[in-house]
């Protein structure tokens, strides 16, 4: 065994304290980045399992309050779970049927308006500054047809890939539904089983942090669903007033896009503006764009602060980075799950760092109450304890004095 000699100890003592602190933080940062890299790759490899489970967890956060209310009314939990699931499936099925029916009804009108818009574009190409002839227009059209024929193999391969994706989607839906049943029926029991892997001396803190994280998820899903409804209704009214076709399908698309903050609203709003531009013209498209901007301002400055509050308030940069990471790891589903995961981690870490949560029992945290998503201390921020402050001060004083740590410093608590 090789020991540390006196000369090595003296050299170590002469290393500036700030450099020692920086080195210690650096290797810990590298370890965290490496662990995150491994986690992201594992999640990407197991995406067919992780994504349905995450979707089931989101749905459980949305439906758990209804199951809890039925249980408090005296209905057995199994029956309450069945009632909520059947009711939810009936509502979703009815809405999907209505959206598909409205899409089928509005498609002929959209085709006519698109045809008229294409005629207008063709006339502009002939009579406008380009002065293209009918022969030139036909040649361009023939090139498009030839390009499609040349890439027929790729198109067929894409269709087969789409069919495989549909099969994976159905499998994921079945897995998500199966998982959701157990989350609603025995979610608390599943959590108690999982928390046993945590060491006993910190199990209580981890339990409280996990429950606060799920409470923030419940609050986030509730608020996001309400914001999505307001977005869809606001945009739908604007589309209806301007007489844009496919009002209901576009409103449904805006509703779904609202579950991906910032990015989803921009993408679905762009689709609505594009349909208005093609079907109705530039003036109507600008009106729809103004409606979208107004709805987004209402969402960001009124609805989200009012509904989400400080407990799950996330910085826009953190949201964008989380969505980008989710897209890289899991595509659209990853973007959908990234912000809720960030909200859970935000509340859980704040709970672990909070001094006020040390004496909180897990039974005191009601995960269905939005106010339980954060620790009780004011502002949700933790003041560093004296030990951390003293360590930093010791390192800086060592650097200033040019001497190693003294016995007085090393013994300070």
Relevant terms:
mainly alpha, 13 helices
Model description:
Residues 361-413 are annotated as: Disordered. With 413 residues, the chain is mainly α. The protein has one domain (17-375). It is 80% helix and 0% strand. The chain is built from 13 helices and no strands.
Write the layout of secondary structure elements.
Elements: H1 6-14, H2 17-45, H3 47-72, H4 77-127, H5 134-150, H6 152-195, H7 200-242, H8 247-257, H9 263-280, H10 282-307, H11 316-353, H12 386-401, H13 407-410
Helix pairs in contact: 2-12, 3-4, 3-6, 3-7, 3-11, 4-8, 7-8, 7-10, 7-11, 8-9, 9-10
Number of domains: 1
Using only CA atoms, what is the Rg?
29 Å
Cα distance, first to last residue? 32 Å
Number of helices: 13
- Count the beta strands: 0
Task: Quickly give the structural class.
Answer: mainly alpha
Low-confidence stretches: 378-393, 398-413
- How much strand? under 5%
Any idea what the shape is? Answer: globular
Main beta-sheet annotation: none
SSE pattern? HHHHHHHHHHHHH
Please state the average pLDDT score: 77
Give the proportion of residues in helices. Answer: over 70%
């Amino acid at each position: 065994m090789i020991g540390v000699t006196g000369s090595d100890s003296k050299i170590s003592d002469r290393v500036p304290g700030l450099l020692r602190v920086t080195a210690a933080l650096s290797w810990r940062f590298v370890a965290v980045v490496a662990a995150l890299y491994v986690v992201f790759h594992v999640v990407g490899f197991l995406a067919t399992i992780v994504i349905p489970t995450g979707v089931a967890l989101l749905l459980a956060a949305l439906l758990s309050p209804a199951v809890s209310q039925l249980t408090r009314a005296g209905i057995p939990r199994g029956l309450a779970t069945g009632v909520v699931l059947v009711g939810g499936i009936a509502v979703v099925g009815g809405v999907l049927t209505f959206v598909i029916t409205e899409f089928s009804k509005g498609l002929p009108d959209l085709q006519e308006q698109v045809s008229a818009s294409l005629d207008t574009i063709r006339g502009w190409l002939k009579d406008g500054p380009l002065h293209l002839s009918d022969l030139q227009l036909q040649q361009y059209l023939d090139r498009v047809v030839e390009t499609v024929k040349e890439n027929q193999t790729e198109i067929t391969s894409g269709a087969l890939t789409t069919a495989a994706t549909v099969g994976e989607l159905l499998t994921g839906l079945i897995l998500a539904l199966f998982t959701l049943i157990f989350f609603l029926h025995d979610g608390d029991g599943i959590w108690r089983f999982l928390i046993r892997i945590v060491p006993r001396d910190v199990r209580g803190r981890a339990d409280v942090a996990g429950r606060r994280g799920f409470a923030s998820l419940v609050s986030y899903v509730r608020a996001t669903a309400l914001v999505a409804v307001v977005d869809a209704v606001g945009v739908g009214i604007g589309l209806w007033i301007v007489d844009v076709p496919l009002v209901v399908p576009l409103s449904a698309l805006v509703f779904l896009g609202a579950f991906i903050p910032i990015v989803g609203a921009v993408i679905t709003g762009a689709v609505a503006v594009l349909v208005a531009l093609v079907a109705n013209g530039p003036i109507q498209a600008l009106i729809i764009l103004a409606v979208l901007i107004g709805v987004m301002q209402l969402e960001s400055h009124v609805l989200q602060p009012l509904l989400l509050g400080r407990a799950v308030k996330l910085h826009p940069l953190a949201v964008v980075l989380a969505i980008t990471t989710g897209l890289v790891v899991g595509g659209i589903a990853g973007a959908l799950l990234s912000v809720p995961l960030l909200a859970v981690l935000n509340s859980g870490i704040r709970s672990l760092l909070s001094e006020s949560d040390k004496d909180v029992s897990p039974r005191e945290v009601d995960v269905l109450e939005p106010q339980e998503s954060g620790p009780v201390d004011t502002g949700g921020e933790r003041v560093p304890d004296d030990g951390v402050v003293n360590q930093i001060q010791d390192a800086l004083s060592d650097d200033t004095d040019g001497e190693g740590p003294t016995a007085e410093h090393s013994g300070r608590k």
